[in-house]
Design a protein that fits this description.
Blueprint (H helix, E strand, L loop, with lengths): L1 H25 L11 H23 L8 H19 L6 H23 L6 H25 L12 H22 L12
Helix pairs in contact: 1-2, 1-6, 2-3, 3-4, 4-5, 5-6
Length: about 190
């Protein structure tokens, strides 16, 4: 069941990445005005909430020895990322949502690095999860740089580069979830007790 939940997370993260790519491709200056994105944003938030729920369920699904608290925290942050825009009234700055992205990237990065350091991993598994952990922590730094304005973007409500970064992050997350779902790590390795 845990593999099925992680496979569903892979599919949902892929859908999120595709929606962000479409938003990047049309862009705020493109053929689709920003106010017409409402439908896509509502679908995006619901898919993100579903992905967060599946991630939480995968973390809670009991293996022989326990739960994966890092996967649960990742799912909680992802669920909050999907639900806050649904209920928030008024303008919502990217900075607040980026903090949730940072939390997601850090928790998954630590989880992947923990799996990579497991003595029972083959060389290919160690490399995959090592790179996944380092890449996830790299995304955390990139989002942190955007929040702290270390990376200067033009001042406008929606910058196309942010959509591209979100597309890349959720695509990367989909690949990582697929690695978890393929059974390259046992559920007991997902546990942090």
């Amino acid at each position: 069941m845990n593999r099925l939940l992680l496979a569903i997370c892979t599919i949902l993260d892929t859908i999120i990445a595709v929606i962000y790519f479409i938003m990047y491709d049309t862009g705020p200056d493109g053929p689709l005005p920003v106010h017409e994105w409402q439908g896509a944003v509502m679908i995006l938030n619901r898919v993100t909430l579903a992905a967060g729920g599946c991630t939480i369920a995968a973390g809670l699904w009991r293996s022989a020895k326990g739960k994966s608290w890092l996967l649960i925290l990742n799912g909680v942050a992802l669920s909050a990322y999907g639900v806050i825009p649904l209920f928030w009234k008024g303008p919502l700055a990217f900075d607040r949502l980026a903090l949730l992205l940072i939390a997601m990237a850090i928790t998954f990065g630590i989880l992947a690095l923990t799996i990579a350091r497991s003595p029972r991993r083959s060389g290919a598994d160690q490399w995959f999860f090592g790179f996944a952990g380092a890449g996830s922590l790299g995304f955390a730094v990139a989002f942190l740089a955007l929040v702290n304005r270390w990376i200067q973007l033009e001042r406008r409500p929606f910058h196309a580069l942010v959509f591209l970064l979100l597309c890349l992050y959720f695509g990367f997350t989909a690949v990582c979830m697929l690695g978890l779902a393929r059974g390259r790590c046992t559920p007991s390795l997902l546990r942090i007790s």
